[in-house]
């Protein structure tokens, strides 16, 4: 009998647990309240994708901060939005 892959999913981490995961990987989080508010708005996986180039062996490079990763996300978000508005508005 084939096992249902959805039954083996691990439960989602709380926002506080996500913060601890990021810290355990060497990410500097100066303002945990801001980080939690951000993670509530932006999916953990979406945001963490912006830090992939700042990691090596699943650890962030020394000095990398949550705010830097968020700034990369914001730049990309605004750039994409402005580009779409310019080229799709005719």
Quick tags:
single chain; 90 residues; two-stranded antiparallel ribbon
Task: Put the structure in a nutshell.
This protein is mainly alpha-helical.
Describe the structure.
It is built from four helices and two strands; from the N terminus they run H-H-H-E-E-H. The protein has 90 residues and is mainly alpha-helical. It has one domain (14-88). The chain has a two-stranded antiparallel sheet with strand order 1-2. The model has no long low-confidence stretch (mean pLDDT 91). It comes from Fodinisporobacter ferrooxydans. This is Abi family protein. InterPro entries: Abi_system_AbiD/AbiF-like.
Number of domains: 1
User: Main sheet: which strands, in order across?
Assistant: 1-2
Percent of residues in β-strands? under 5%
Overall pLDDT: 91
The oligomeric state is single chain
Please give the alpha-carbon distance between the first and last residues. Answer: 55 Å
Low-confidence stretches: none
- What is the share of helical residues? 40-55%
Largest sheet: 2 strands, antiparallel
Q: How large is the radius of gyration? A: 17 Å
Order of helices and strands: HHHEEH
What does the overall shape look like? globular
List how many beta strands DSSP finds: 2
**Helix count, DSSP H or I runs of 4 or more residues:** 4
By secondary-structure content and strand pairing, the structural class works out as mainly alpha
Secondary-structure map:
Layout: H1 15-24, H2 32-41, H3 44-49, E1 55-56, E2 59-60, H4 66-88
Antiparallel strand pairs: 1-2
